[in-house]
RNase III domain-containing protein
Amino acid sequence: MSPYEFSTPMEVVTYQDNHSSNLTDTGDCWRALHASIPRSYDSPSLISTSTCSETDSSSIRSLSCAKDFVDNSHSSPPTTSPCSNSVPTSSQVPTCGPKKTLYPLQTVDRLTAPYQNLPCAGNPVHIYTWSLPKPPILASLAGLDPQCFTNTDRGFGLLFSQPIAANEYVCRLPLYLTRGMARARVRHVKSVILSEEMLEVIIAAHRVIAELLTNIADLSHVGQMGTKQRLDALSHANSEGRPRPCAQNVRDRFSDLHFDPVKSRTLCLVTFFCSSTNDIDLEAARTLLKWNKGRINWNFQEKAVPGRLIQPNHGIIPAYPVWLSQVPMAYWPGVLVRPCHLPSNDPGLFAVSGASSKTGLDPVPPNLAEKVCAAVNSEPSSNSENAVPIPVNPVFSYVDYFAIRHPAIFCLLDRIDHNLPLVGCHRLTRHQNAAQVTAGMRKNNSIEPADDKEFSYLADGCILHPLSAWLWFQMSIIPMIVYQMTRALSALQLFTVLSHELGYSCPPPSQSTQSPSSVDPTVLLPDRLDSPKCMLSDLQRSTAADVTAEENFEDEYLLTDEASRRVEPSKHVPNPADLLESLTLLGARDAVNLERLELLGDSVLQLISTLTVYSGSHEDADEGQLTAKRVALVSNSNLRNIAVRLGWQNYCTGQVYSPPDHFMFPCYDLSSSVPHRDSDTRLFVRLTDKSLADMVEAIVGCFLQHLGLPAAFRLLTYLGISPYANPSSQGKEVGAWDQLLSETQQNNRHSHSTLFRPLEFRPTFYLPDRNCPAGSISRLPNGTEKDDLIERQSLRLVGLQNILGYQFKDISLLIRALTHQSSPQTSLFGSYQRLEFLGDAVLGYVITIYLYEKHVEFDPGQLTESRSNIVSNNSLACAIVEHQLHPYITHNQPAFDTAVDFIQFILDTTTSLSDQLELLNQEVLKGLRAKILADVFEAIVGAIFVDTQGSLSTVSQLIHRLLDSRIDDYLLRNPMNPLKSMHILHPRLKYTEGQVEEAEAGKKYKLCATVSGGQVFTYGATRNEARLALARHLQVPLRTIDQNQC
């Protein structure tokens, strides 16, 4: 056999599949080496290396002799890989939960047919590519030596028949790599006209790239038995009734796809692009086609590879298959190899940094040699009569070591050149998690050399991948580029649609959502560097590597980013980058999510829907009837129906993106023969109704945050929750809460700071209480008695108005707000139920806005818990008694006085406002009725809101006058409900309601709980009292008070 004639890689793999995982003849292998390998060491002394670490004796196995310090990347190969071709996968799970619905994955009009077409010869074609950080920085982020990336002026581009955006700079998107985050900038490069021959080459190369990327872990790319060959072998074995040659299930993902540009989610061609010439790299495409032709024609049964030297051309290997020793050593840096001895379930590829200073004849460290010797002596063959004596202090070369440890290398001994240098290389990951914000998060992450990750292998034992390490890296991030670009353009599409729908003077959406307009903003996708701190935990915030990578980016892009941030929002719609936050669910594991905006949107949705119901209902409607009407507007089912009707589910990002499960190469669609195609995760996403409802609320919150309440109101009108008047009726009706929409709120520190933007026309509804001041008082016997009664009440309520700091224009509103339905006065004034219904929504809105703007560091959980404490019935009841508002309430409830007495007692007992709330929480659980007090507080808020014609600033001043001290104390000390504390301390606690027995007479409720393996029974006059007793039994910290003094 000639020096350049090699055994077929297929032969190696066959042997390795049978024996590499069950090596039982290590001693015989060593003895064969001992007798046949020439010993020509330059020096008998053993040298140490800077790239090795001491081997743990616990890793020594009799099957593989020892764990190699230069080969530890595959010592424990994964049994399964998310990127491997094994089955089953989540993309073929046919069922979904009962509360989830299948929706098509995100598609964007500007990326699909009919707007896009397959590029044609003779017509303009638009080239888009992406810029990345400088190659040395990028290599460090990928955990590689900078020498692993060569010819970095070459990469990939996307060819579209139509422009996808008006701006040259389309979007900025994050890539979360192995050791940090890199930002990619997608940009339009140029427009070109292709000839028939050029287009034919590009399409043919596109198909090859599609297979390389879709089956990125296929071993046939490196001359070994790949997925297709394994499937053929399995089929042939099954047909002959023979045992399966491979126990691992395999799957050819590319066979699931078929070339169908019209039905694909992304209609473009992927091609090679050269940044130095700023043009398509047709020579690289032709070289790849030459490699692919060699792969197609290669017969895996051949015994040798033609002996010749091979040189990469434009970063691509032109022949198939090729061993690294066939490539001149000057071209080693930057090539991509696979050591032939790796097990088939480890699809690892390694980027070569260059030739090592050691050759195959150099000795391994003595400690490793001794462990290899110990492993050889432990074999049964060592006790045979013909065993060759093993020296006491053995000396093993690197060739010895690899040949003893790996049968695949042992089979190649007759052609291995012992004088060749070892090859230094680094494992290159596929970055399948590059869309997850948690990827690349490690302690003390920094940009530093990756020498500690370097491995050394025999050049004669490494097979080449056709692409260079740089091109392969660029190809591996294409799924992330397409996914994030789709998200950016999806947000831009929603921005365009809403601009048309809410702008009143734009062309129809059917014409403008596809064609880019001249005002398309550059979409800067949020990432770890610019995401609000409240979105990310301490473990997910930006690292030093993230900052360094961005600081070393080209200045022109950094300046463009700053200019994009300064773009003023649309008159009617927030910027697409802001909309992205409201379109991203928590489950997507992105840098932002909709949780905070959902809380904000829920508050304004409750406010506007409450006003809609309040103004459109009869005055005699009670709280239950009003609530039922509001629920019909704001329920999850209604919001979900609105989202589906408008097609908003298409914009929702609701899952963690995984290329093996979700990516389809551009111009390809899923074949109709694929099992469970109608639920395949490459076509569909599972979303709950609540997820879509939360998204609608978050979009409303986004409008409120960036454009103010009038814009949010306009959006709700578009959604059909709050109808506008006919524009022709403008001036005929005077809205009773025009001030709510028209007052400038920037001077009020407790309200939203966005200036008002005028509406085109007024709302239809009005507040009957204010437009009809007499209200229910008109039912009085005669006008004289009515006037006398109002005058007497006005005198009685002077002190209350002084406490409130507000003088009512219509005192009947305040009278009604203080009248409980048990009072005989309801026949004259009505009860507070309607005003309470209104005030509850206004109070929730004001407090939510305050917390959202003042405490930007609060995560959604903190916001929800803080608001819950502040607006709770018990907190409002304490405020009523604290400010001495309760004497003005008219009622006929004995329990009212009991509640007032107890609250006054705890106010006198402790000055801690949080302690007061916790004590009242416990007492209410025992049966104390304090809700009337809270209802009156909300009714007073509603009355002032009506009396001021919807002035949020006036209402906000009242709320903060009465609650500011409590707000500050609650935020500082975070008072806890005892039942909530119980479930936090005992998250697995479960209890059921038991049957009260005769011997337990006097106890109405009984709870049965399992605690520490035993049964615990607690009792109470109410369910909550029984639960409180359980909390006390579990020693949950509770506030105590001596009620004998009460």
Remarks:
- The CA atoms of residues 358 and 421 lie 6 Å apart.
- The chain is about 40% helix and 10% strand.
- The two ends are 104 Å apart (CA to CA).
- The first helix runs from residue 9 to 19.
